[in-house]
Design a protein that fits this description.
- The complex is a heterodimer of chains A (298) and B (265).
- Chain A is mostly helical.
- In chain A, 71% of the residues lie in helices and 3% in strands.
- In chain A, strands 1-2 form a two-stranded antiparallel sheet.
- In chain A, strand 1 and strand 2 form a beta hairpin.
- In chain A, helix 1 runs antiparallel to helix 10, helix 3 packs across helix 8 and helix 5 packs antiparallel against helix 8.
- Chain A is globular and about 65 Å long.
- The relative contact order of chain A is 0.18.
- With 265 residues, chain B is of the alpha/beta class.
- Chain B has two domains: 184 residues, Rossmann fold; 68 residues, no CATH class.
- In chain B, strands 6-7-8-3-9-10 form a six-stranded mixed β-sheet, with helices on both faces.
- In chain B, helix 3 crosses helix 4 and helix 3 packs parallel to helix 6.
- The chains are: A mainly alpha (298), B alpha/beta (265).
- Chains A and B meet through helix 6 and helix 7 of A and helix 2 and helix 3 of B.
- Chain A: InterPro entries: ABC_transp_permease, BCAA_transport_permease.
Chain lengths: 298, 265
């Protein structure tokens, strides 16, 4: 390679990081539920699709943006609580694989229901943010990506404050640490689970809107879960900071690999590079970069 | 309320995964203001009995197959664990089970939340716990996972006290702790019993510690209550030492040497 273009490298890197934020958003939804109930909720992608589809269908019927957001959020909360009540609670104390299979089935039910209610056509979603790049001292940055990153950062900040400073947040962290002790202490686990599912519903809604605006609201949207998996493997399934950093790393690595290594493989490596990366991490650090390293005294 | 007993266990039978019998007829009562010790060897059914009292067995794929547990008029097997805590039956689990990534103070506060306490109640209860366990005061901002075993035990007991228990249930509080720390904890518990009328049920393998601490004791063997009596009576009996070691026939009275440090107090 002759002449390394630093500015170009930076542009690819920033673009990658910003698109990684979108992966992080999806991954956070998984982490919330995994931390509190030990379930890898495969239906998170279907929830994301359901949220985006509901939102779009509402706005297409002339409902204003904030109202549609509020209604969809309410529906997601109800959906989350219903899932917890009817699917997961009867299965408590079953092996994790049973719970995983239940959420796998659930994802088909949700997708089917969404299809039944809102139809199968592809919807466009316009958040009013134009996807035009602008120039920051020589580096072109997509305005939409920047907006998405800001939204994700806000969401993470809100969630962190909630979990750090509220009673229910303390309960969440307690359950995540030791569910059996939480039960013995008298914490009401159903309340905490319901809250977590509501929070996961909110994350699904926000992620669904951003992804929907990016690629259109359609059924392949639920497949973004597959992109969240390498992020989770990289960051650890039980760490929100891990999900954020994992998403950024995957986003950046994908783009950089495509640009700098793509030629050697005939291009198009962006779509599978994340999985290779995840595989390597699995070999070296099975718990992920941020996965639960139990706090232990020495 | 003519019934003086706070807790009554009768003919309790329990199994795990519907197959393994853990309890096969445990019965005892605990009067208000009493300290009762539950003695027995490994696998005698102490922990299962205690978990049954807090209705925690279902969470570990265990179930009660016979008998009754009544706590202050409640049928325990039909009451959710959280409601038992609110009714005043609070348990300190075997192995302490602090929340390791929460600070000591957050651990304590979680006990208050379990009871549904108000902010002000939590603040005043915190002061009380710190008065009982001054060592926790300086550790309040430290992650409990990083504190010592004794401090974790104090945190776990403090967390239970935050729920304002009437009956405090402790499972092997002395496990893995230095004798001096055990003594410290026992002293605090006895003061709580004396001054605030807190009833205490404690399961111990270390019969020497338990019999010095408790008013009365019962002995479990293979899931059955085999013996009960006042602490001083039981202390005088040689076969107790044999029971908690799991031997059937006690040898002549020289077997004390098996756990010398525990008898040193």
């Amino acid at each position: 390679m002759e002449g390394f273009d630093g500015l170009f490298f930076l542009e690819v890197l920033v673009g990658g990081l910003l698109s990684g934020v979108m992966y992080s958003l999806v991954a956070i939804g998984f982490v919330l539920i995994y931390k509190t109930s030990g379930v890898l909720n495969f239906a998170q992608g279907a929830m994301l699709l359901f949220a985006a589809l509901t939102f779009v269908s509402l706005t297409e019927r002339g409902i204003s943006f904030p109202l549609a957001f509020a209604i969809t959020f309410a529906i997601m909360v109800v959906l989350g609580i219903t899932i917890e009540r009817t699917v997961l609670r009867p299965l408590t104390n079953r092996p994790p694989i049973t719970l995983f299979m239940a959420t796998l089935g659930l994802s088909y039910v949700i997708e089917g229901a969404a299809q039944l209610i809102w139809g199968t056509q592809v919807h466009g979603l316009d958040l009013g943010i134009e996807d035009v790049p602008f120039d920051v001292s020589g580096v072109f940055i997509s305005q939409f990506d920047l907006f998405a990153a800001a939204v994700a950062a806000t969401l993470v900040a809100v969630l962190s404050v909630f979990f750090r400073y509220t009673r229910i947040g303390l309960g969440f962290r307690a359950v995540a640490d030791d569910p059996f002790a939480a039960l013995a202490v008298g914490l009401r686990l159903p309340v905490i689970w319901a809250t977590v599912w509501a929070a996961a519903g909110l994350v699904a809604l926000v992620a669904g809107l951003l992804w929907g605006a990016r690629v259109g609201v359609q059924f392949s949207l639920s497949l973004v879960v597959l992109k969240a998996l390498p992020v989770l493997v990289l960051g650890g399934f039980d760490s929100i900071p891990g999900a954020i950093v994992g998403g950024l790393l995957i986003g950046a690595a994908e783009k950089l690999a495509e640009v700098y290594l793509g030629d050697y493989f005939g291009g198009g490596i962006e779509s599978w590079f994340a999985y290779v990366l995840a595989l390597v991490v699995l070999l070296v650090r099975p718990a992920g970069l941020f996965g639960q390293k139990r706090v232990e005294r020495v | 309320m003519s019934d003086p007993s706070l807790l009554a266990v009768e003919g309790l039978k329990a199994t795990y995964v519907n197959a393994i019998t853990a309890l096969d007829g445990v019965g005892f009562t605990l009067a208000r203001g009493e300290i009762l010790a539950l003695l027995g060897a490994n696998g005698a059914g102490k922990t299962t009995t205690l978990k049954a009292l807090s209705n925690l067995l279902p969470a570990e794929r265990g179930q009660i197959t016979g008998g009754h547990i009544r706590f202050a008029g409640l049928d325990v097997t039909r009451t959710r664990p959280a409601d038992l805590v609110r009714a005043g039956l609070v348990q300190v689990l075997e192995g302490r089970h602090c929340f390791p990534s929460l600070t000591v103070e957050e651990n304590l506060v979680s006990g208050g939340l379990g009871r549904g306490a108000t902010r002000r109640e939590i603040a005043s209860d915190l002061d009380k716990v710190y008065a009982h366990f001054p060592r926790l005061t300086e550790k309040r901002r430290i992650l409990s996972g990083l504190t010592s075993g004794g401090e974790q035990q104090m945190t776990a007991i403090g967390r239970a006290l935050m729920s304002r228990p009437r009956l405090l249930v402790l499972d092997e509080p002395s496990m893995g702790l230095a004798p001096i720390v055990v003594q410290d904890i026992c002293r605090t518990l006895r003061r709580l019993n004396r001054e605030e009328g807190l009833s205490i049920l404690v399961a111990e393998q270390n019969a020497a510690v338990a019999l010095r601490f408790a008013h009365r004791a019962i002995v479990l063997e293979n899931g059955v209550t085999v013996l009960s009596g006042t602490a001083s009576d039981l202390k005088a009996r040689d076969d107790i030492k044999a029971f908690y070691l799991g031997h059937k026939a006690p040898g002549p009275s020289t077997s004390v040497a098996s756990s010398p440090p525990a008898f040193a107090g």
